[in-house]
Amino acid sequence: MKSKALKENKDFRRLYYRGESRAGAYLVSYVIKSRRGNTRIGITGSKKIGGAVRRNRAKRVIRAAFFELEPRLSGDWDIVFVARSRTACVKMQVVRDQMEAQLTEMGVLD
Predict the structure, then answer these.
(1) Mapping DSSP to helix (H, G, I), strand (E, B) and coil, where does residue 12 land?
(2) Residue 1 above 70 pLDDT?
(3) Residues in CB range of 62: below 8 A, 6 or more apart
(4) Going by DSSP bridges, is the β-strand pair 20-23/27-33 parallel, antiparallel, or unpaired?
């Protein structure tokens, strides 16, 4: 199952206000059930993380972690991941483990 990108500001805001969330040291996850028939993901990080190089590394790490977990998704979801300042400093496996725990707790993963 291939996910699509979540790009619209209104979709991000909808998840922030109405979605279920979990926060960890490396990642904050927001999820809401989707009725669109596909899964959409958005990845974001503020300038608190650092410059463009650090922000882009954090996003790459999150994206790689998600694609490893994607086959285990149960149903269609809108998901937003927010990078934390430490995200750019750790290996993808560390972020994947935290992401797996958060998504399992919210019922997104089988």
Answers:
(1) helix
(2) no
(3) 27, 43, 81, 83, 87, 95, 99
(4) antiparallel
Q: Are 47 and 99 in contact (CB under 8 A)?
A: no
pTM, full prediction: 0.95
Q: How far apart are CA 55 and CA 61, in angstroms?
A: 10
How far, in Å, CA of 57 to CA of 76, rounded?
Answer: 27
Q: Give the number of other CB atoms < 10 A from CB of residue 34.
A: 15
For 9-67, the pLDDT digits (tens) are 999 999 999 999 999 999 999 999 998 889 999 999 999 999 999 999 999 999 999 99
The HSE-up count of residue 90 (CA atoms within 13 Å, CB side) is: 18
